[in-house]
Design a protein that fits this description.
By secondary structure, the protein is α/β, with parallel strands linked by helices. It is 40% helix and 25% strand. It has helices at residues 3-15, 18-25, 29-43, 59-81, 99-116, 133-136, 168-172, 222-230, 244-249, 278-297; strands at residues 48-50, 55-57, 91-97, 120-126, 140-144, 153-160, 162-166, 188-191, 198-203, 208-213, 215-219, 235-239, 253-255, 264-270. The radius of gyration is 24 Å and the shape is elongated. The N and C termini lie far apart (55 Å).
Length: 300
């Protein structure tokens, strides 16, 4: 099979465009389109479904792309290494992550990376939605929770635990909270409740509790809950990593020390093995270490 055809196919998928791939490769658009058609003919398999506005991978096309992406990247990096004026630690890395984790933990680590390696650039997309890394052309993703079965390369970085916090002002003006059940009588600040009540799950070393709280305020963003708790609006159940500074400064106090939510896995995933390119390995190592270090600070 012609390696050039495979490389052209990979670039079309990465850029989600025949025109952009042609521009990058310095080829006529017609040549790029014919190359993909030729590859489909040689393999006897439809790889892409083309419409006037979009390109969609077939199941076979997705599997083929994921298999070929790593080797193609390695070949391109090897070619770069032959040029003494070019560094492997150059190029753009596209990353997606949950908003709060991204802005609070990942962003500072990326800032340090760009200072240390001027040839690197990043495009960041923060969302709590599950992004299709292959279709949308992302190199890395940080995910919270269970991972779907796929061919993606995954590395567990740690766990997120939610803890209950409130301001001293709020706690002084409301009944004492001695047990998890006491929270059901308090003003609670909750993430994305789908009804008038929300279930909070807490556990200690010996016990567990399921609480039916009635949120006073509901938000789709943890950071906003944290700010409202600091302003005295109520008790918020938020990730421990998110409120380290507020607890250290005394702006927030931990409610029910020793109780926390069950852990949610945090993973770094990529369509490629981190060893497939120097820049991907560097970014994976630095971002993974930053996230793991932050999560371990609040480990009980």
């Amino acid at each position: 099979m012609d390696l050039d055809l495979t490389r052209i196919f990979v670039k079309v998928v990465q850029l989600t465009s025949f025109s952009k791939a042609a521009q990058l490769l310095g080829l006529p658009k017609s040549t790029v389109s014919k190359a993909v058609s030729r590859l489909e003919l040689l393999t006897g398999t439809t790889l892409l479904v083309r419409t006037t506005r979009s390109l969609t991978l077939t199941a076979a096309g997705r599997a083929f792309y994921e298999t070929c992406l790593g080797p193609i990247q390695q070949i391109e990096d090897a070619m770069k290494s032959l040029d003494g004026s070019d560094s492997l630690l150059t190029g753009k890395i596209r990353l997606t992550a949950p908003e709060d984790l991204g802005s609070q933990v990942i962003a500072p680590s990326i800032a340090r990376l760009t200072q240390k390696h001027p040839g690197l650039s990043f495009e960041l997309h923060y969302t709590d939605e599950i992004v299709d890394l292959v279709r949308d052309g992302f190199d890395l993703a940080v995910r919270i929770g269970p991972l779907r079965e796929s061919r993606m390369k995954a590395k567990k970085l740690g766990e997120i635990h939610l803890i209950a916090v409130a301001s001293e002002t709020y706690l002084k003006s409301h009944p004492k909270i001695r047990t998890p059940q006491d929270l059901e009588q308090h003003d609670c600040l909750s993430i994305n409740a789908v009804s008038e009540s929300a279930k909070w799950y807490l556990k200690s070393k010996k016990e567990s509790a399921q609480l039916n709280v009635r949120p006073r305020i509901v938000s789709n963003q943890m950071t906003s809950l944290l700010k409202m708790a600091g302003a005295g609006a109520g008790v918020a159940l938020v990730p421990s990593y998110l409120c380290i500074r507020e607890m250290e400064s005394g702006e927030l106090l931990r409610v029910l020390p020793g109780w926390r939510s069950p852990g949610f896995n945090v993973s770094l995933i990529s369509p490629l093995a981190s060893t497939s390119s120097a820049r991907l390995k560097m970014a994976s190592d630095q971002i993974g270490s930053a996230v793991a270090a932050t999560l371990s600070r609040m480990r009980e």
